[in-house]
Design goal:
Elements: H1 3-10, H2 13-38, H3 53-59, H4 68-86, H5 104-107, H6 111-120, H7 146-160, H8 179-182, H9 189-205, H10 207-210, H11 228-232, H12 235-244, H13 270-288
Helix pairs in contact: 4-7, 6-7, 9-13, 12-13
Bound molecules: heme C (2 copies).
One heme C (HEC) binds next to helix 10, helix 11 and helix 12.
């Protein structure tokens, strides 16, 4: 990556980082408040509180590994549907979805019960719902085949107990449209490189909420192609925005869904985010030209 990008992006960060810390603090406090309510199972009359089911599971002998086929089908569903709220590693996105890794519900139910749960989800007014955030039926997909249901249950079992996860090939998000083929031949090769890199990064960190080709997903992230907000921001301001996100407590939030800092992927560097912006700006421009 060229150095002038890093110099550019440094400008916005000092003012921003203290705000990020404030955000982190608020998130910690929220978590601390939410924690006791999340484990009503612990409140029993016995002298020794029983160990949570997910700890018992890991302390015991490993169950048989999940089948490779199921894990591969399940991973595709998980990455494209569930990761938006439960995070790619299943540890949960604050204010969106719970940790599936530390889920006693998952640890103490068989596959049939988990499949039944996924078909129904858990509405916010369900007595079992502790977060007052709905878990949509099929995680928001219209439906799932029997094989997909079996696969996604197998995959989350592997996330909860990694001893059961077969060794999977590296995850590559399915390609959407071939944006690179659309780049004008006379485009600055540096810029083309940023766009190519941005497309990959977008597929790994943003697509789960903002959808294919950034057109948005109902109930999750907005369209970034038609976003006037994004169109008006300078690259520096857009970078600062994406690093900070827009929580539901922000008065500018219109969806009542969190935009997590860096889309929930702390590993993204400033250069990575600027590459994503190059990609998004290219999509917006080519769409505006009716391509
Ligand atoms: C739009 C956000 C969202 C999506 C997408 C989503 N979930 Fe959830 N899920 C939630 C929320 C919120 C809860 C917790 C509800 C509550 O408070 O009980 C939850 C709960 C769960 C639970 C129960 C955990 C427990 O300990 O009670 C499982 C299992 C689960 N989800 C699996 C999945 C799978 C698998 C997918 C993908 C097919 C998925 N979810 C997609 C939001 C989501
Ligand atoms: C967990 C879901 C989620 C992920 C992942 C996510 N976003 Fe968002 N994003 C949202 C939501 C929800 C909003 C709208 C918040 C609101 O109501 O204002 C949003 C808003 C935005 C906006 C402002 C759009 C506007 O018109 O107000 C930008 C820009 C943006 N996201 C960029 C990104 C980028 C870039 C990534 C990947 C690095 C990303 N987002 C990942 C959920 C997500």
């Amino acid at each position: 990556m060229s150095t002038n990008r890093s110099e550019n992006s440094g400008v916005a960060s000092p003012a921003f980082s203290s705000r990020a810390r404030e955000f982190g603090k608020a998130a910690l406090i929220a978590l601390a408040l939410a924690a006791p309510a999340a484990y009503p199972v612990w409140v029993t009359a016995t002298a020794e509180p029983p160990r949570p089911a997910h700890e018992v599971l890991l302390a015991g002998a490993a169950l048989p590994p999940v089948a490779m086929d199921d894990a591969l089908v399940g991973r595709e569903i998980f990455m494209t549907t569930c990761a938006a709220c439960h995070k790619v590693d299943g540890t949960g996105v604050p204010n969106l979805g719970k940790s599936l890794v530390k889920s006693d519900f998952l640890a103490s139910r068989d596959d049939a019960a988990m499949e039944a749960f996924l078909t129904k989800g858990r509405p916010a007014d369900d007595p079992m719902n502790t977060t007052r955030i709905p878990m949509p039926p099929y995680g928001g997909r219209t439906t799932m085949s029997a094989g997909e249901l079996r696969g996604v249950v197998a995959f989350v079992r592997g996330l909860q107990d990694p001893r059961r996860m077969p060794s999977l090939p590296e995850y590559v998000a399915a390609p959407t449209r071939d944006v690179l083929a659309e780049l004008p031949k006379d485009m600055d090769p540096e810029e083309a490189k940023y766009i190519a890199s941005g497309q990959k990064l977008f597929a790994n960190s943003c697509v789960s909420c903002h959808g294919k080709d950034a057109h948005g997903m109902t109930g999750l992230g907005k369209s970034l192609v038609t976003s006037e907000f994004l169109a008006k921001l300078s690259d520096d301001d857009a970078l600062a925005f994406i690093k900070k996100g827009r929580s539901t407590s922000d008065p500018l939030n219109t969806t009542k869904v969190d935009m997590p800092p860096k889309g929930g992927n702390p590993a993204l560097s400033d250069d990575d985010i600027l590459d994503i912006l190059s990609f998004l700006r290219f999509l917006a421009k080519s769409e505006a030209q009716g391509k």
